Amino acid sequence: MLLNKPKNFLFSILSLSIIVLVWWILAETRFQQTGIIPTPMDTLRLIDEEMRKDSFFEAIFSTLQRSLLSFVISFIIGSVLAVIAHFRKFIGIMINPFIVICRSMPTMALVLILLLTVGSEMLPIVVAFLVVFPLCYENMRTAITETDKKLITMARVFKIPKWRQITGIYIPSMLPFVFSSIIAGFGLNIKVVISAEVMGLPSMSIGHLILSARQGFDFGVSFAWLIIAVLLSLICECILRMARRLCMPYRYPDSKIIKEFIGKFFSKRYKPQR
User: Fold this and answer.
1) What are the Cα distances from residue 95, in Å, to 25, 90, 185, 222?
2) 20 to 30 A Cα–Cα from 72, which one of 78, 177, 200, 217?
3) pLDDT at 117
4) Would the pLDDT of 228 be above 90?
5) What is d(CA 173, CA 169) in angstroms, rounded to the nearest whole number?
6) Which residue did the predictor score with more confidence, 253 or 117?
7) Backbone φ and ψ of 88, nearest 5°
8) Distance CA 55, CA 205 (A)
9) What's the pTM?
10) Rounded Cα–Cα distance for residues 127 and 110 (Å)
11) Helix 89-104 crosses helix 123-145 at what angle (to 10 degrees)?
């Protein structure tokens, strides 16, 4: 597995190079006159200009705050309802129509309807909750269902306490599904929040800056903020994947290297005072 990592890294670099090459070709040929899609170098220059503005980090933190709040609410409510629905089947039957409706409803239609009822500031949080909640609920139900029934039966036969069953059987078995739900759900959550910000125009956000640049016919800046949103989502995904490796060292042996690096970093930075 470790031997394949350099090869995987090379393939990732190759794929990224192809994407950048296609991007550069389109910018230099089809969209050269309109300026809708700037070249990679022009995009980097525009990103650097935006980073020098006071509104840059304020917009990013505002969008991240909404994304984090909406996802935490979705994950907690989805997890609690999934546990209840697993042990009380009639609850799962009652929740299922609501899950189907949320999963099937078009996002843009949902944004336009809620814009008139919840206001622009709460709109991204509510829309992201209604879109991400079904994903969290279904993944948590799958995680509980996939727990090894033989281990649970054995624990009951040997009269192992409930809390030991939860910490020793349920949680280790559910962790892969939980982290998969978090990684997929949070990436989707950021995209939905930014889309709702574009429509709802909450004060100082990534979506607000994208639409403001678009309305001013500054397509290059709008595209630069689109790239910033993609990079923000990728950074969050990398952090979550690292957290998954740290929480499941039995599945990722190379996570010991990350733990040692973090331990050395903090031991050098915060030395105990005598």
Assistant:
1) 49, 9, 19, 40
2) 200
3) 84
4) yes
5) 6
6) 117
7) -130, 95
8) 9
9) 0.81
10) 7
11) 130
pLDDT tens per residue across span 260-269? 544 554 455 5
Q: Which of 193, 203, 71, 241 is nearest to 139 (CA)?
A: 71
> How far apart, in Å, are the Cα atoms of 27 and each of 8, 43, 201, 229, 248?
29, 11, 29, 20, 43
Q: Which amino acid is at 264?
A: K
Helix or strand holding residue 3 (H, E): none
Could you give the CA distance from residue 212 to residue 198 in angstroms, rounded to a whole number?
Answer: 9
Cα separation, 109 vs 188, whole angstroms: 17
Separation of first and last alpha carbons in the chain: 44
24 neighbors 39 (Cβ within 8 angstroms): yes
Please give the single-letter amino acid code of residue 70. S
Spatial separation of the C-alpha atoms in residues 238 and 233, rounded to whole Å: 9
